[in-house]
Amino acid sequence: MQQKQNKPEEYLEEWDWKTAEPTGKAVSRKKAHKEGIAHEGVHLWVIRTEPETEVLFQRRAKDKDTFPGCLDITVGGHVPFGVNENKIQKEAYEEIGISPADSDLTDLGYYRYEEKIDDFDHREFQHVFLLTDNRALNEYNFVDNEVEGIYAVKLPDLISILHNDYFFSVEGYEGSELISMKVSRKDFHPLLFTGPMEQYMKIIIEAVTGISLGREVTAKMPSVKAAYEQI
């Protein structure tokens, strides 16, 4: 019986937690998450505006080490060491099969994120983008098998679920067929509802609401340096 091969060690670039600047030094992902060494991540929220405003969530693969099968940010991941261009495009292609042009992206800036659970110490500067894309759900492809499907959550339901738990319907696609199902908080990545993400999600909602109303997006993530001074 052939044994499953271990994935090669992933290396990230260290960022200075105080100055919010990259250092040029490489650190393994495992060490970064154990010792709280800051690094860069990228997030992409994909929005549909026709016939109504919806926010797309990826469904994490069932064999993921953390939070398998949960609905999560459309695209999200770490930036590998040495990758200096097309960071979000690389991640977006690997996860959902698209590579949007920079001109189509709305840049919301960086979010300073910190999470400590037992021996897991996660410090990350998350570069957050929005993309309006009205393609059909079955036009997405899951290239690297890290993502199992994609689901459309209506904006009013997303706003409501952040404050109260309840069941609502979503439409999705998992590679072979369109799916309709009922979901509640238990189906989403639990960290979306925690304190460290509260301000982040408020800004996402504000930006998506602006897009739904045809307004210029003015919402931005808070200054990462100012956020450090408040710690």
What does this structure look like?
This protein has helices at 29-35, 87-96, 155-161, 198-212, 224-229; strands at 11-16, 21-28, 39-48, 54-60, 71-73, 75-78, 105-117, 120-132, 147-154, 168-173, 178-183. The chain is α+β, with helices and mostly antiparallel strands and 231 residues long. The chain has five helices and eleven strands; from the N terminus they run E-E-H-E-E-E-E-H-E-E-E-H-E-E-H-H. Helices cover 19% and strands 36% of the residues. Strands 3, 4, 5, 6, 7, 8, 9, 10 and 11 form a nine-stranded mixed β-sheet that branches. The protein has a single domain (41-77, 86-107, 125-229), classed as Nucleoside Triphosphate Pyrophosphohydrolase. The mean pLDDT is 94.
CATH-scheme architecture: Alpha-Beta Complex
**Per the principal axes of the C-alpha atoms, what is the gross shape?**
globular
- Give Rg in angstroms: 18 Å
In total, the number of domains comes to 1
CATH fold title: Nucleoside Triphosphate Pyrophosphohydrolase
- The CATH class designation is Alpha Beta
Outline:
The protein has 231 residues and is an alpha+beta fold. It is built from 5 helices and 11 strands.
